Amino acid sequence: MHIPDGFLAANTWVPAWLISIGGLGFCLRRTAQILKDKMVPLMGVMAAFIFAAQMLNFPVMGGTSGHLLGGVLAAVLLGPCAGAIVIAIVLVVQCLIFQDGGLTTLGANIFNMSFVGAVGGYFAYNVIRKSLPDKRGTIVAAGIAAWLSVVMASSVCAIELAISGTSPLRVALAAMAGVHALIGIGEAIITCTVLGFVLKVRPDLIYNREA
Amino acid sequence: MNRKEILFGLLVAVILAVIFSPFASPWPDGLEKVAEDKGFLEKGEVEPTISSPIPDYAWPHFKSKKLATSSAGISGTLIVFGLGYGLAALIKRKA
User: What residues does each domain of chain B span?
Assistant: First the structure.
């Protein structure tokens, strides 16, 4: 879902940059207030895992692949703000070093995957988890939120394409949400698998678990 | 996290990036496929705004596609690990 240069018009990518810079500034300040010692190396490990996992495209249907976004995974472990920062680090490196996602569209990609995906996904996780308090509930909530985060991020991407005049909203929205509803299943499976493992070996690494 | 746990997490990421990445699906991802189907893929075929050292997850000077991908994978994995850890340590120290 990394938007390349050329897909978005300036009327879309400029505001997206501004919102993302503001959002990251907020997240950095908030993270400074709540960052626990155990989260410091975890931010590096999560960035590494998500970068590596994003290279592993899996086929979803004839001629289409998808890969992990990792927003909900990062946010469930690190909280929404540090999670959003980790996704943004991955996106910046992918853009500057690997030419994956454009530079003009980097702000929109951070908006979609850090803020809609990680932060939005975290809020969905939090709401669902309230009715499912035990360990299994954490995994179920994260799985549903992971699927939702991919569908939400791809829908916002479709809206950006429409605002840019690249593709009509109805066309883009149906196509993007449709294919990402399938990719989201992979997202949910990977997210649940990793969180299941973490819950077994280091359940205290889950952000705010006692709350 | 102690040193052993950090190394374990990093090792999992490195194994994914080095051993599994050459076998990833080469098919276009969701957005690329939609762009292809809905006829706006060529809009993305503009000159890149910056020249990246490792375009498309392959070190340019490797003849073997698999080696080019694996080495790109480990490079990126270690870079984001360093940036994530480093930025977090910086935030922690300033807090």
Answer: 3-94
